[in-house]
Design brief:
Layout lengths: L1 H4 L4 E7 L5 H9 L2 E8 L2 E6 L1 H4 L9 E6 L8 H4 L8 E4 L5 E9 L5 H10 L3 E6 L4 E7 L3 H6 L3 E6 L5 E2 L2 E2 L6 H8 L1 H5 L11 E6 L14 E3 L7 H11 L17 E6 L13 H13 L5 E4 L1 E2 L2 H4 L11 H11 L7 E5 L30 E7 L23 E6 L7 E4 L7 E5 L1 H23 L6 H10 L20 H10 L2 E6 L5 E8 L5 E7 L16 E7 L5 E2 L24 E7 L4 E11 L5 E7 L3 E3 L2 E5 L7 E2 L5 E10 L9 E5 L6 E4 L1 E4 L2 E6 L9 E8 L3 E5 L8 E2 L1 E2 L1 E8 L8 E4 L2 E3 L3 E3 L20 E3 L9 E8 L10 E12 L7 E6 L7 E6 L8 E7 L11 E8 L6 E14 L13 H7 L41
Parallel strand pairs: 12-14, 12-15, 13-14, 15-17, 17-18, 18-19, 32-41
Antiparallel strand pairs: 1-3, 1-4, 2-3, 5-6, 6-8, 6-9, 7-8, 10-16, 11-21, 20-21, 22-29, 23-28, 23-30, 24-27, 24-29, 25-26, 25-28, 31-33, 33-37, 34-35, 34-38, 36-37, 38-39, 38-40, 42-53, 43-47, 44-47, 45-46, 46-53, 47-52, 48-51, 48-53, 49-50, 49-52
Helix pairs in contact: 9-13, 13-15
């Protein structure tokens, strides 16, 4: 804990024994440790505010390690080794130094504007924003990349990915969409009694360009949405998804000839010696397709083509920024989730990148290496055999690729997939590739989605549900079980729809680490196979660590004798070996248990959150046999539970309590609470309606150390608690009052003064920043309110000479309590020399000053930075407190700028309140609630005072009652 308090406000790497729950993360935030990106295995990036720790963190357990963020944790190994991928070079200066394109991920709490300012300070610029990832596509001088990665604002820097392009190859010009339809059972679904054609389903096709919307096979159902340019590949892919076959008498129709298609292409503006991928285009196009045009599905027959293009072989298997972006989009980072299909790539066209020692394995290239999209390998449509080009897994962190496979070529015969091209409104051609397998699967998915809406209505299935349905009903190929060549096998659409109609699947959530759900499955004698398939759309990972799984769920299946049956796992160190069923899976977000000849009886299925730092986690689970939820009571919360209680104030808490396959026993919902280590009080919760119940945390005093948990009883399942291990594991809160003593957004003059020594230009001034970044100045105030204090106010001015000193008005901090001053500062010095911004505090009206911080530029922080300090830790609070900021450019040999905004002083107190019985609860609440008697109605518990009691009523808290002497006549 000491390491957290050392140093100033900064980002560090913390590791816990287990991932903290959402409530525990709030407690850490209240203690001055704000958890950011989850890195897996209990690790997080975290922002530490030593000024807010104030001893609270000592109460919180589970922290096992704190580390500063070393450069090698934040800079991609290629860049760290001094290499410069050619495709990242966007320009050369007069000395021959390249400016390169990189992806920069900022820490979660850092605004994009601060990242942009940092880039400009380093001589770079922002090319595009990745808003859903809090990242930037940046152009940076190669020599400044280490300074960029070292900045506390930055979480990760990696070279831009090579330009994505279509992943297909020409084939003999002969028909094949007809054999694709036959193999995958699309023909059956298009005919009676199914009569599915994808009507009502909107498909986004994101490709290397756009489709020929006027082609006869589209009949006005394709709309071009950007200016990337019409190409054959996008037209062909769109036709495989949903062409009508009008130009061929229906022979070459696609899988879902009734869908509408939104056609987008990867756009590049031509900057650079070589081409790189701008993920911002992907984000913008998906944002529009989802939120403006209502796309339900997306096909992406696009990739980096690492092997044929001669790119670095180590790209194969990588999980990078583009993969993280895709994983977030699938989950709903742009506002709504979407089902995404992605071609697994054609990297087995050559052997140049067979460098791992496993031949064609490890050949999947980004962005097919993301977790959540449904990646599709390519098979030959005539016999389900493996093609000569389809990429194989695993990824570098050992995950399965592809997820499934589908026809994308043909061995012998016509030798390709025939669909429309852009040559004319009736032209067709035959191509091979995973580019053909992916739209085949996307079109099948449109048929599945159309039927889902008939069977189940809204909402549409999760992406993970679509993945589960396709994998659960696929035909196993090659080695038994999933493999790194074909995934879970060859897709079959009719089998998928027939299974889906049984309804033997569930979509649900696990809230946090340790949470679990259980079901039972009844297996009849002579059953051949029991199969359960699980998938979840995982939280996006950061590329900083090898191992992209963030939320790890475990599927437990036990037979009637109590024997556990494990999921399939593959060995990345022996990728050609068959899958085994001997252990848990710690890599993948799709798992399957398959039991051959299962014994008859009742089987138990349990899903448990092994490690869920980014909960709640939605999941999808399918079963070959009908399964029933084990009766249980589920306790959840519609809003965050309180982490800080105001002393002396009652705090309501609301829980959602539901009986699942069970009936909630009336009157059983209970809030259990104890303060100061006393015995737990059981407080009945009142029904609010709609499965909501409320109770109040009693008014706490400063020494309360509140602990609480919830319980409820099911008629069948019995008592359930939250947390599940309560009372061994409970919820906590702090007790404190926070009041604002002073706040200034500088929209009015509140008495700050400026004093200058040897300043020739650019002294502190209050105004609206007018710069455009040319002189390292802020372009906007921190809070967006308009005005702030800056040096060098003006477009081209900066500070010359100095120091220029900005001094606060006088603050009266003489009342008892802890005082925390917080503010946003801007400081830039383009020469990284001896000049500094100094922040000081005085408790004697400026007679003497104590240093708070000396801000240099060596770490390249730049931009607006929020920080704080505890006044009491530096000087004794008095009624004569001032704060001042000094900035110097002396000697005048650099561009130096400072800024101040959002200044605030808060007082943190916990006033002593009456708690005579030391139970942590306000005395008046003890008596009002009836927990303590109060014979004389003075709001003081009787156990705390000697009181008169009538005959035969014992005296509370004062030993036995002494009888009065008998009365005698005078």
């Amino acid at each position: 804990m000491r390491r957290l308090a050392e140093g100033g406000e900064r980002h560090v790497l913390v590791r816990f024994q287990r991932a903290p729950s959402a409530h525990e993360q709030e407690l850490w935030r209240a203690a001055g440790v704000e958890l950011g990106h989850a890195l897996g295995a209990g690790a997080f990036f975290a922002r530490v505010d030593p000024g807010a720790l104030a001893g609270r963190a000592e109460r919180l357990g589970g922290l096992i390690d704190v580390r500063e963020l070393a450069l090698e944790r934040k800079l991609h190994p290629t860049l760290l080794a001094g290499e410069t991928p050619s495709w990242t070079v966007v320009s050369l200066d007069e000395r021959g130094e390249p400016t390169v394109a990189v992806y920069v991920l900022l820490q979660e709490d850092v605004a994009l504007e601060r990242g942009d300012a940092l880039l400009r300070e380093l001589g770079g610029s922002s090319f595009d924003l990745l808003e859903s990832l809090n990242g930037i596509v940046a152009f940076v001088p190669r020599s400044r990349l280490q300074a960029l990665a070292t900045s506390d604002l930055v979480a990760w820097v990696e070279p831009a990915m090579p330009k994505m392009d279509s992943v297909s190859m020409p084939a003999a010009a002969a028909p094949l969409n007809d054999s694709n339809r036959a193999l995958t059972q699309a023909n059956t679904l298009q005919g009676a009694p199914y009569n599915l054609d994808g009507s009502g389903v909107s498909v986004m096709v994101y490709d290397g360009g756009t489709a020929r919307a006027t082609h006869a096979d589209f009949g006005g159902r394709v709309t071009v949405r950007d200016a990337s340019g019409m190409i054959d590949h996008a037209t062909h892919v769109s036709g495989t998804v949903g062409g009508s076959g009008a130009s061929s008498g229906g022979t070459f129709r696609g899988m879902a000839p009734g869908v509408t298609i939104e056609s987008y292409g990867f756009e590049y503006d031509g900057i650079g010696i070589f081409l790189f991928t701008n993920p911002g285009d992907f984000e913008d196009d998906y944002d529009e397709a989802i939120n403006v045009f209502g796309a339900d599905l997306a096909n992406n027959s696009i990739g980096t083509n690492t092997e044929p293009n001669g790119f670095f072989c180590h790209l194969q298997g990588d999980y990078g920024v583009m993969c993280s972006l895709i994983d977030g989009v699938v989950r709903g980072s742009l506002g709504a989730p979407i089902r995404v299909l992605w071609a697994n790539g054609n990297e087995r066209q050559g052997s140049r990148c067979d460098v791992e020692g496993f031949g064609d394995y490890y050949s999947a290239a980004p962005p097919a290496t993301a977790k959540n999209h449904i990646t599709v390998g390519a098979l030959n449509s005539n016999d389900d055999s493996m093609t000569s080009f389809s990429s194989w897994g695993p990824t570098d962190d050992g995950r399965l690729k592809p997820d499934i496979s589908a026809p994308g070529c043909q061995a012998g015969g016509d030798g390709g997939v025939t669909s429309p091209t852009a040559a004319s409104d009736v032209s067709t051609a035959a191509f091979c590739g995973t580019s053909m397998a992916s739209p085949t699967t996307c079109g099948l998915s449109a048929l599945i989605l159309e039927d889902w809406r008939v069977q189940f209505g809204a909402p549409d299935p999760l992406n993970s549900t679509l993945k589960v349905l396709l994998a659960h009903t696929a035909v196993d190929l090659g080695n038994v079980g999933p493999d790194f060549q074909t995934g879970y096998g060859s897709v079959r659409a009719q089998a998928c729809v027939d299974f889906m109609r049984l309804g033997q699947f569930v979509e649900d959530t696990l809230a946090e680490t340790g949470a679990y759900l259980r079901w039972t499955v009844s297996v009849a004698p002579a059953t051949s196979v029991l199969r359960l398939t699980l998938a979840w759309d995982d939280a996006p990972a950061l590329p900083n660590v090898l191992g992209s799984l963030v939320n790890d769920l475990d599927l437990f299946v036990r037979d009637p004798l109590g024997n556990r049956h494990h999921v399939w796992t593959l060995d990345p160190a022996n990728p050609s070996a068959a899958a085994v069923r001997t252990q848990v899976d710690r890599r993948n977000n799709i798992e399957q248990v398959l039991v051959n000849s299962p014994i008859a009886g009742t089987w138990t299925v349990e899903l448990r959150g092994h490690d869920v730092p980014e909960g709640p986690q939605l999941f999808s689970l399918a079963s070959s046999h009908a399964f029933t939820a084990v009766p249980h009571v589920r306790i959840s919360f519609p809003s965050a539970l309180p982490s800080v209680l105001t002393p002396g104030v009652t705090t309501p808490v609301i829980a959602r309590i539901v009986g699942v396959s069970d009936t909630l026993v009336g009157g059983s919902p209970t809030l259990h609470v104890r303060y100061a280590g006393a015995s737990y009080l059981a407080l009945p919760m009142s029904a609010l309606g709609g499965d909501l119940f409320q109770a109040n945390l009693p008014p706490a005093v400063c020494t309360a150390n509140p602990e609480f948990y919830f319980s409820a009883q099911g008629a069948t399942s019995g008592i359930a608690t939250h947390p599940a291990a309560a009372p061994s594991e409970v919820l906590d809160a702090f007790v404190a009052t926070v009041t604002t003593v002073f706040t200034d957004d500088f929209q009015a003059d509140l008495g700050w003064t400026v004093a200058n020594t040897a300043v020739t230009d650019g002294a502190w001034a209050r105004g609206t920043p007018g710069g455009v970044g040319e002189r390292c100045d802020p372009q906007n105030s921190f809070g967006g309110s308009g005005l702030c204090f800056v040096t060098g106010l003006g477009v081209t001015a900066d500070l010359d000479g100095g120091p220029t000193r900005l001094t606060s008005p006088l603050f009266d901090l003489s009342a008892s309590g802890e005082y925390v001053a917080s503010y946003a500062r801007w400081y830039v010095n383009d020469d990284y020399d001896i000049d500094r911004m100094q922040v000081e505090v005085s408790n004697n009206n400026g007679t003497s000053w104590t240093l708070v911080e000396s801000v240099d530029n060596n770490a390249g922080d730049g931009g607006w930075v929020e920080t704080s300090f505890v006044v009491n830790a530096l000087v004794a609070p008095t009624n004569q407190v001032r704060v001042r900021l000094s900035v110097t450019d002396n000697p005048n040999d650099s561009v130096t700028e400072g800024g101040l905004d959002a200044f605030r002083i808060e007082r943190r107190t916990c006033a002593a309140l009456p708690d005579c019985n030391a139970n942590g609860i306000l005395d008046s609440d003890d008596t009002a609630s009836g927990r303590s008697s109060d014979f004389n109605s003075n709001s003081v518990p009787d156990e705390c005072e000697l009181v008169f009691t009538p005959p035969n009523k014992p005296l509370q808290g004062a030993g036995p009652t002494i009888p009065a002497p008998p009365m005698t006549a005078p």
